[in-house]
Amino acid sequence: MSYNTFGHLFRVTTWGESHGPEIGCVVDGTPPGIPLAETDIQPFLDRRRPGQSRHTTQRKETDTVRILSGVFEGVTTGTPIALAIVNEDQRSKDYDAIRNQFRPGHADYAYIAKYGRRDHRGGGRSSARETAMRVAAGAVARKVLGQAVRIRGALIQMGPHAVDRARWDWDEVERNPFFAPDAGAARAWEAFLDGVRKKGSSTGAVVEVVASGVPAGLGAPIYGKLDADLAAAMMSINAVKGVEIGDGFAAAALAGEDAADAMRMRDGRVAFLSNHAGGILGGIATGQDVVVRFAVKPTSSILIPRPSVDRHGQEIEVVVKGRHDPCVGIRAVPVGEAMMACVLADHLLRHRAQVGPA
Question: Which of 37, 225, 288, 352 has its CA 20 to 30 A from that of 20?
Fold first, then answer.
């Protein structure tokens, strides 16, 4: 299987399966001399790991990361950084019943159509378990970017229920199990998701990721656009079905004079009066906040029987048992942050290679 690597100068290759002994990644392109320890990575993994509330899968994984290479005497050496996590709580027998079944909404049929085989234990490489290593790589990317760049994500919609932006509070994101920036929305989602779970169903979500302090100039015209790479990165996350930058699809309803971000001079510098473009124009960062949103479809593993077929061409009904997130979008928040970090780190290094320090 190819295409396990993303990035250009800051490159990440992930490996491992949902129910294999370990998962891991190799991060290549990190400059030498950057302080890096497992304690720099672990807090981000702790935000993503399963089993932290009744609203996520009850699979118990500590997601304890080990640095296997690329760091010596507490700093990066410039060589590939290998990271690994042991899988601790696999229950492969939960998937025995669907060994030859195609689960609706999953990649089962697509993998068989392409490769002629699949790992039925939790989906193998198609499982969201792989995203733990993206989060680990994202922690390394944040070290490359430095403290001047701040990346934050939030869940802004669950099912049909959106946050009230008038009550947006970034501090609230870390105070509830949904990464919600609106305490009122978090309380409403708790009751909503309890009802979804009791029905044996699932629901979708929308995640917003904002990067502040991004240097103007990152990105390149035509085929190296920052927003194009961000869109591809977010679309590569499991269950993501839509991505928008800035106002995104809502921009279609604006008049030209409203959509264009007006400019004035403030303290001898260009200042934008709005940010409909999401901090990117012509594929190049403007120095404003970079704003990305992505939509996550409902978790496909549900207890409600769904019509399908098996590998032998028989029509069947599929019920997926085991431990699953009723809303996979919740744990997608730190994954979206990580992908933002990886793309920005890659573009920072590419910018330096072409025109010097940002």
Answer: 37
Instruction: Spell 35-67 as b/e; 16+ CB within 10 A means b.
Output: ebeeebbbebbebbbbebeebbbebebebebeb
CA atoms of 69 and 90, how far apart (whole Å):
26
Phi and psi at 108, nearest 5°, equal: -55, -55
Would you state the pLDDT for residue 82?
Answer: 98
Q: How far separated are the first and last CA of the chain, in Å rounded?
A: 36
- Residue 200 vs residues 81, 91, 157, 203, 220: alpha-carbon distances, Å: 41, 20, 20, 11, 46
Kindly tell me if the per-residue pLDDT of 16 is higher than 80: yes
Closest by Cα among 221, 197, 207, 249 to 338: 207
Rounded Cα distance between 10 and 76, Å, is 14
Assessment of whether the complete model's pTM goes beyond 0.85: yes
Chain segment 282-309, per-residue pLDDT in tens: 999 999 999 999 999 999 888 889 999 9
> SS3 for 308?
strand
